[in-house]
Amino acid sequence: MTNDTPSGEQTDGFHLLIDALKLNGIENIYALPGIPITDFTRMAQAAGLRMISFRHEQHAGNAAAAAGFLTQKPGICMTVSAPGFLNGLTALTNATTNCFPMILISGSSEREIVDLQQGDYEEMDQLAIAKPLCKAAFRVLHAQDIGIGVARAIRSALSGRPGGVYLDLPAKLFGQTMDAAAGKKSLIKVIDPAPRQIPAQDAVKRALDLLKGAKRPLIVLGKGAAYAQADADIRALIEKSGIPYLPMSMAKGLLPDTHAQSASATRSHVLAEADVVMLVGARLNWLLSHGKGKTWGGDKADSRQFIQIDISPTEMDSNVPIAAPLVGDIGSCVSALLAGMGSGWAKPPVEWTQGIAERKDKNISKMAETLALNPSPMNFHSALNVIRNQVKARPDAIVVNEGANTLDFARSIVDMYEPRKRLDVGTWGIMGIGMGFAIAAAVETGKPVIAIEGDSAFGFSGMEVETICRYNLPVCVIVFNNNGIYKGTDKNPRGGDMAPTQFVKGAKYEMMMQAFGGVGVVANTPAELEKALTEAIKSGKPTLINAIIDETAGTESGRITSLNPASAKKKTA
Ligand code: FYN
Ligand code: ADP
Ligand code: MG
Question: What is the SS3 assignment for 61?
């Protein structure tokens, strides 16, 4: 029998989708069952796909996004129609903003009824709504097109700048049948979904010439550099060039944070002083003060020159002029730079590197003094010092981090030693990624996960501790409990209700984990925290540590207080 001969056997939309995903190496699906995808989730599980079933679609979506970042394969999230789709959409848009590859697949209601707006069950024109909020969006109407739909989604998610893709599958499609042999033939295994993009030779030379002439060069590594999995070459570039570097938060660990060339501990100084800055997979967005202004030394900004490595050509000049754009994939660009540097590369002037080293040592010693204190109640520093030591001992553990003060303190206190071990709120500063990211990190890598969570941030995805227990994942959630958003000491001037930033005092977050069979512990001191975290990592059991933090510790919005309109007004007044 040739491939074109009808086999007599039939297949259907459910199985074509399963087969298309498996053919393309997808192993895990993050989902929330319901009409019209419930049967799909059962059949996919029966067919050997790992089905991780969540309590809210946003967290399934966040898990898919983190899976995409960690594996360079699109993370798959599946939801029901309208409300489920909308719940997943925030995660899809966040993934797109962060350049993480993911595919949101949502079932949808009867096209004929939806388009005439006749009031179907969960009626919504999902494709139209998704389109402006993600990188690409497709709808499949016929079973024989499922293979093409999945292939287009995978290619769109992974090629060029990675991002989120929406795939709309109307309920009717799942039940459509067709000849099994023809169905098999209709599937596509995507070849080379993220083709290398080799930079032009003249662009490489322009970048190297600029770098060579620099007196105070700096390299900024962004999460694009972490995503690229070009770890050895990036390290070689830093070390061969001798240039100080600054990792953005999710690029921490690309080289160990303890590396002699890391300038993290003197960030303000190097940003203000550098004369040539090479950005590697980092955008000049708000996180880098748009490449101008006070952070960049005010007037000095006019004479500073930028080299930018990015896969997206239109990223260049988005905020300030880029003197040497280097467009291509990071792996190819970095290896071209290394080749072009040859053997006689001169290290940057010692006045620059020595000055950085001195400032850095001073700041690190100051930090060490603060970390050594043991105040009662525990504060952010003394609690994070425990986690810092544990991560040092287990550098393969993945750290998930969200909150305001909890985020900002953890970023600078908890050193990272290996690439792609830190997942956080990213480009948007989004809250609610915690449990979704933690679940994906555990599922995709099997490594211990430490989720460092502000008490407010934890609340967004807290119900997913049930999911963590159900799949028995090696996740230890540490809730930094200071009774509120930013801190717990606000007052309602009129009395009555609590202030809008306050939470119930003495909340027993540990019981949330106990409720589902996991381990729940209260930690009032660094010693108690250390004991509980050591045990959690050793046992691999789902654990929640309720770390009681001084409710007066912390500042409004952590280190980004100035973004609050009232503070901004004060500054300009
Ligand atoms: C850093 N620092 C250190 C160390 N590491 N000192 C000593 N030892 C070590 N290891 C110093 C560093 O030099 C800075 O001081 C300071 O600590 C802070 O460093 P950080 O965190 O790297 O820098 P900064 O200014 O906070 O970074 C800006 C930012 C970052 C915008 C990139 O804040 C960020 O990623 N923010 C995300 C915030 C967010 O999304 N929040 C969620 C919403 S909260 P100086 O050099 O003196 O400056 C809603 O309210
Ligand atoms: P950070 O927030 O850490 O500074 P950003 O998310 O702002 O990082 O920037 C990541 C950049 O990396 C994006 O501009 C994206 O286009 C780019 N990028 C992502 N993957 C690659 C890759 N493989 N090669 C080149 N550039 C990439
Ligand atoms: Mg808090």
Answer: helix
